[in-house]
C-alpha cells in the first residue's frame, strides 16, 4: 500500500447506520440491499457498536431466535475506531487483527467522518498499483545535450533501408532513404 495514503483518502463517507432498537431481520435486509459487510450501531449520532452480516445471521439462525430480535442482541458493543489522518497501514493492521468488518473513522472534532472496510483497502491497493504501473510504462525523460556534442549529428539520420548514417535523407514512399537507396 502506498504509505502516503491517509485513511481520509480511502474511507467511505456514506455508511450504513442502524439503531439498537431496529429489527434484526430488517437490518439484514438493509445490509444486503446496500451490499455492506456491516453497519455502525448508533444511539442518536453517537456510535455505540457495530454489527456484521455474520452477527445478524448467527442470531437469526440461533434456535432461540425470535421474530422481534433487535440489533442490540447481536451487535458488538465495541466501536473499532481510527483517526481520519492515520495511515492506511494502521487501518489494515486493525482490520486484520480483529473480526470486525469495518472501522469507524473519527475526525479531529470527534465526529464520525465515515468508515473504512476491507473493500476500501483493496481499492486503495489496486489504485496505487495502477498509478505505479502507469508511471513505470512512461518513456524516460529526454535530456538535451550540449551544443558541442550535438553539433556533428544535428543534421544526420539513419537510412531506413540500409542503416547508413547520413545527412542526405529524403522521404521516399514513406521511408527516410539515403541517396544510394533512393536510386535502387
UniProtKB/TrEMBL annotation:
GO MF term list: IMP dehydrogenase activity; metal ion binding
Positions bound to Zn(2+): 159, 162, 178, 181
Pfam families found in the cross-reference section: CBS (PF00571)
Residue ranges of domain CBS in the record: 75-131
Keyword field: CBS domain, Iron, Metal-binding, Oxidoreductase, Zinc
PROSITE patterns the record matches: ACP_MB, CBS
Enzyme Commission designation: 1.1.1.205
Residue numbers spanned by region Disordered: 130-152
CDD domains, alphabetized: CBS_pair_SF
Listed name of the protein: IMP dehydrogenase protein
